[in-house]
Design brief:
5 strands; single chain; 8 helices; binds thymidine-5'-diphosphate; globular; 44% helix; 5-stranded parallel beta sheet; alpha/beta
Length: 268
């Protein structure tokens, strides 16, 4: 068994780790991309990644998980396979990036196991807690966005974005009640860990959601508020900023100075 890794240093001595969570069709992938663009426009190195997947071996496990091939093993076994994929993702993508000072924005992470395999799959919370602690080995998100929307809205969006010839994946094809349970589960996670989680209304316009996310990133992770935009930044303009509201690039702030999280409960 490989030795336990050294604990991650606190912010700002590494990149920040941000996760996006929520049900199907909540817009996590789009928002992850938009947030990375905003950071890069401010000269902050950022990568986007996803779960299950995010490293070559974890992507192989993704194929297996989403095909439904191991569904019959039951939710507990699925949780273990999601965890196996997560271990490889952390070891080969997330931890090295954070240590190199790169911000990591991840589309789904451990809260998805709590919601999908825990709340809906009925896997014992004590088992999942131990599995999560062992799997994460101290690599916990600094900030998690729960993109919240009614299950039927999310499923309609997921169906609209799916190519006509493709079918639903293993989880999309579950009944509406499944997706409602998921929603309640994510809201419960956010309520239990308010220092880590921010709930964002994902029924809002894409630009407004991006703005809410950015505001929370600035207030929670930057000691001095929003970092200034770099010259010649290529970030796409925020199309829905409301008239009269102060634009980000007008705000005079010092260079990015991520808030220290050494005392944060979210860091193991
Ligand atoms: P994906 O196509 O990435 O879905 P989405 O676009 O909604 O994020 O498929 C990932 C699916 O895997 C999704 O239905 C949620 C599920 N999942 C779990 O059940 N447990 C987990 O731990 C993770 C990370 C994902």
């Amino acid at each position: 068994m490989p030795a336990a890794q050294a604990p991650l240093p606190p912010l700002p001595h590494r990149g920040a780790f941000i996760t996006l969570e929520g049900g199907e069709g909540a817009g996590k992938t789009t928002q992850a991309r938009r947030l990375a663009e905003k950071l890069r426009a401010r000269a902050i190195t950022a990568i986007t990644t996803r779960e299950p997947g995010g490293s070559p071996r974890a992507e192989v496990l993704r194929e297996i998980l989403l095909s439904g091939l191991i569904k019959d093993l039951g939710a507990k076994a699925e949780a273990i396979v999601f965890a196996a994929a997560r271990i490889d993702h952390i070891d080969h993508t997330i931890r090295p990036a954070l240590l190199a000072g790169t911000w990591v924005i991840c589309d789904r992470f451990a809260d998805s196991t709590r919601a999908y395999q825990g709340s809906f799959g009925g896997v014992d919370p004590g088992f999942l807690e131990v599995l999560e602690r062992t799997t994460l080995d101290g690599v916990r998100p600094d900030l998690t966005f729960v993109l919240d929307l009614p299950a039927e809205v999310g499923l309609a969006r997921a169906a609209a974005r799916r190519a006509p010839e493709t079918t639903t994946d293993r989880f999309e094809s579950e009944a509406l009640g499944f997706h409602e349970t998921l929603r309640r589960s994510y809201l419960a996670i956010a309520a239990a860990e308010p220092e880590r989680c921010v709930v964002v209304d994902a029924t809002a316009d894409e630009g407004e959601v991006a703005e809410a996310i950015w505001d929370a990133v600035c207030s929670r992770l930057f000691a001095e508020g929003a970092p200034r935009k770099a010259e010649n930044s290529r970030e796409s303009s925020g199309s829905t900023r409301k008239p009269g509201k102060k634009r980000e690039q007008d705000e005079a702030h010092p260079a990015p100075a991520p808030r220290s999280t050494s005392s944060s409960k979210t860091l193991a």
